[in-house]
Task: structure prediction
Amino acid sequence: MAPPMSASKFLAALKDEGVTVVEVGDWRHHNRNHKGPWGPVHGIVIHHTVTSGSERTVEICREGHPSLPGPLCHGVITKDGRVHLVGYGRANHAGNGDDDVLRAVIAEKALPPDNEANTDGNRHFYGFECENLGDGEDPWPEAQLDAIERVSAAVCRHHGWTQRSVIGHLEWQPGKVDPRGFTMKSMRARIEERLK
Ligand SMILES: [Zn+2]
Result:
């Protein structure tokens, strides 16, 4: 359990981990804090966007849409490996997920199956959206996978978490399939290696 880091700390942590950061608009104050709590934070959720085109992807993640207002995450990881900061604070990315999964993340234990949607994830997770069609065929360039590894390690390092605090949306909320095209097991192995 931890309070979220400040926006400045978040930015510094990403840069210290070697992430190429793009600051978009007034990202530090773009959030959904008026709709509910933000924190304590326990982990990170990784997503794919089901979009193509970096500019459009970043725009959608910043603005959202009428039924789901933005920001839809904190950072958008485009295929070139850049991380576009679109918001900070409570963001509409994780939705409701499984309290058993949250308990496992907090305890840094292996994840149980996600079969309930009873817990507010937007309160407890940092979120990164990754530009990908999510069809299982759209490639994940190494630069993009490297950026996922680095942003995850940056946040884990700050909070003293292990790779077990990094989960895919598909491991949090029943019915979700993202991210698709690599396994979270393989990504957690990379993060574990980086954190050593
Ligand atoms: Zn998602």
Notes: The CA atoms of residues 38 and 123 lie 4 Å apart. Residues 47, 169, 176, 178 surround zinc ion (CB under 6 Å). The first strand starts at residue 21 and ends at 23.
